[in-house]
């Protein structure tokens, strides 16, 4: 069992509230996943820059590292966001890999920031300051570990491509074979986690030119197992359930937002929820929403 | 008759269910209104008194499970397992019901005003279910007794591995499950269907002759010795 929440704002009115609403939703899903939690927030892009969200182990001094690399790091708990010109991303990644191999790059992109950690969802939210964050869309996950240890590595979301992230409730049965094939295609995986493979699969499809919707359509045929996925891209927000639909999902749509919850309870804090159109996403059907570029 | 109002935003669910379970057989508290369910699970589960309960809002999982004799109405939507294993009485939801509505129900009437998700009436054992909208895949899977009436459409594998439940569908059936087949509707079935449409309150909008009737082909009842080599 795990919990998923997602909020995609259609209009700018609620953008300042995105983090607070997402944190409320995430906290309610503690019952479904008290082990660890994580979230991705899509904020504003700053020109031709890339944001890297880093997870920094305790024995690395983040300020000294930032100074040594010649970058500014915005610290949030054991995570830090570093913004660099897009053409400097490669050099920074190389410098991190050689000089700070223990530092994880958890996400990269023009707008995504991604935080995850062990502990109750409310504790994770406040550790990283989710309630104060603004943006256009956010995706969160609360994990009840069943197949692997309770570690930050096993927490969701997983990000395997620029501005992309995925959260998963369920378990995949063909992830080992898929991971081998995707590695051959040049994708890199940090864990043995099945959900990371699903994220990598969508990254691979989109790298080949598929839209988020097309990538999700293809996933219905290529991924085997139980899943409810919620996926974020720089401008998009997608939902897919396996054809048997073992894992719960409920959605709400108003003029202002599209929201996802593993249970209706998670949607209760949203403004205007009483008037929202509520529906259960159909099995095996792709749903996605996108902002114009 | 007194009306008892219980606000779930102000007091815990266990207090509510405890009070409902503790009602004496000849209670005067025969009319309950529940406010602010906010998607909570297990609301009004295990009621065994002839009372009426009106739930104002959306409920989570297993609402009205094991219901006996009570008449329970939900003004919003219901989550997974609405009226699971109902014994008798009546449960109505004005909106949609999620998966496995009426699962394993042994008696009573479940009326769904909107659509039902997958596995509606799975393993039904005598319950009557009337759905104004459509039902999802695998509905009435292994149904043993009772009636499922669907005014809309049915998803894939309707009535898979059916025993003796009767299935009436007005709209399209995406596919029938193993051992489920369409049958001619006789007078007895027509009377059952007409009675259920009437009790559900849909008699004015749906006529029995608009429905098709499905039941068990009865080929999976027994092990077939000719197939022994296949195992």
From TrEMBL, chain A:
What residues form the membrane-spanning segments? none
Q: Which GO terms describe its molecular function?
A: transferase activity
Q: Which domain of life is it from?
A: Bacteria
Coiled-coil blocks:
none
Q: Does this entry carry the keyword Metal-binding?
A: no
Q: Which Pfam families match?
A: GATase_6
Assigned keywords, A-Z: Glutamine amidotransferase, Transferase
Q: Please list the residue ranges annotated as the Glutamine amidotransferase type-2 domain.
A: 2-292
Q: What is this protein's record name?
A: Glutamine amidotransferase
Q: Which organism is it from?
A: Falsiroseomonas algicola
From TrEMBL, chain B:
Provide a Gene Ontology MF annotation, just one.
oxidoreductase activity
Q: Which domain of life is it from?
A: Bacteria
> Which InterPro entries does this chain map to?
Glu_synth_asu_C_sf, Glu_synth_lsu_3
The record's CDD domains line, in alphabetical order, gives: GXGXG (cd00504)
PANTHER family on file: TUNGSTEN FORMYLMETHANOFURAN DEHYDROGENASE, SUBUNIT C (FWDC), TUNGSTEN-CONTAINING FORMYLMETHANOFURAN DEHYDROGENASE 2 SUBUNIT C
Q: What is this protein called?
A: Protein glxC
Q: What is the lineage of its organism?
A: Bacteria, Pseudomonadati, Pseudomonadota, Alphaproteobacteria, Acetobacterales
């Amino acid at each position: 069992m795990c919990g998923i929440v997602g909020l995609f704002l259609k209009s700018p009115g609620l953008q300042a509230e995105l983090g607070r609403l997402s944190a409320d939703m995430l906290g309610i899903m503690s019952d479904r996943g008290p082990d660890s939690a994580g979230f991705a927030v899509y904020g504003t892009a700053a020109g031709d820059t890339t944001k890297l969200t880093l997870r920094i182990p305790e024995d690395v001094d983040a300020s000294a590292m930032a100074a040594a690399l010649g970058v500014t790091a915005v610290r949030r708990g054991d995570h830090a966001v570093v913004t660099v010109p897009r053409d400097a991303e490669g050099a920074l990644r190389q410098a991190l890999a050689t000089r700070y191999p223990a530092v994880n790059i958890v996400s990269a992109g023009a707008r995504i920031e991604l935080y995850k950690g062990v502990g109750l969802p409310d504790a994770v939210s406040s550790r990283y300051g989710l309630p104060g964050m603004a943006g256009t869309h956010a995706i969160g996950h609360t994990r009840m570990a069943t197949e692997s240890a309770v570690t930050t590595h096993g927490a969701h979301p997983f990000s395997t491509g620029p501005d992309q992230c995925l959260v998963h409730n369920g378990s995949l049965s063909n992830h080992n074979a898929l991971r081998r094939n995707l590695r051959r295609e040049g994708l890199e995986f940090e864990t043995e986690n099945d959900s990371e493979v699903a994220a990598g699969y969508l990254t691979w499809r989109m790298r080949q030119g598929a839209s988020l919707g097309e990538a999700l359509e293809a996933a219905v045929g290529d991924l085997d197992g139980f899943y409810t996925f919620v996926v974020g891209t720089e401008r998009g927000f997608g939902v897919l359930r396996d054809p048997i639909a073992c894992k719960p999902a409920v959605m709400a749509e108003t003029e202002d937002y599209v929201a996802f919850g593993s249970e209706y309870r998670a949607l209760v804090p949203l403004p205007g929820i009483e008037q929202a159109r509520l529906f259960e996403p159909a099995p095996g059907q792709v749903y996605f929403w996108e902002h114009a570029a | 008759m007194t009306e008892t109002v219980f606000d779930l935003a102000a007091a815990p669910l266990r207090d509510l269910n405890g009070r409902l379970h503790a009602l004496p057989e000849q209670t005067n508290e025969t009319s309950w209104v529940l406010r602010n369910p906010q998607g909570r699970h297990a609301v009004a589960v295990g009621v065994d008194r002839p009372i009426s309960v009106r739930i104002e809002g959306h409920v989570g999982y297993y609402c009205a499970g094991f219901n006996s004799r009570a008449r329970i109405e939900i003004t919003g939507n219901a989550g997974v397992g609405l009226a699971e294993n109902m014994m008798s009485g009546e449960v109505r939801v004005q909106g949609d019901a999620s998966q496995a509505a009426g699962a394993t129900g042994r008696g009573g009437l479940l009326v769904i005003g909107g659509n039902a998700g997958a596995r509606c009436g799975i393993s039904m054992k005598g319950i009557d279910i009337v759905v104004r909208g459509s039902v999802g895949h695998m509905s009435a899977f292994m149904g043993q007794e009772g009636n499922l009436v669907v005014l809309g459409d049915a998803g894939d594998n309707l009535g898979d591995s059916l025993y003796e439940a009767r299935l009436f569908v007005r709209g399209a059936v995406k596919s029938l499950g193993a051992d489920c087949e369409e049958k001619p509707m006789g007078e007895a079935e027509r009377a059952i269907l007409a009675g259920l449409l009437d009790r559900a309150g849909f008699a004015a909008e749906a006529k029995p002759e608009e429905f098709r009737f499905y039941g068990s082909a009865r080929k999976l009842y027994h092990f077939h010795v000719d197939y022994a080599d296949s195992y």
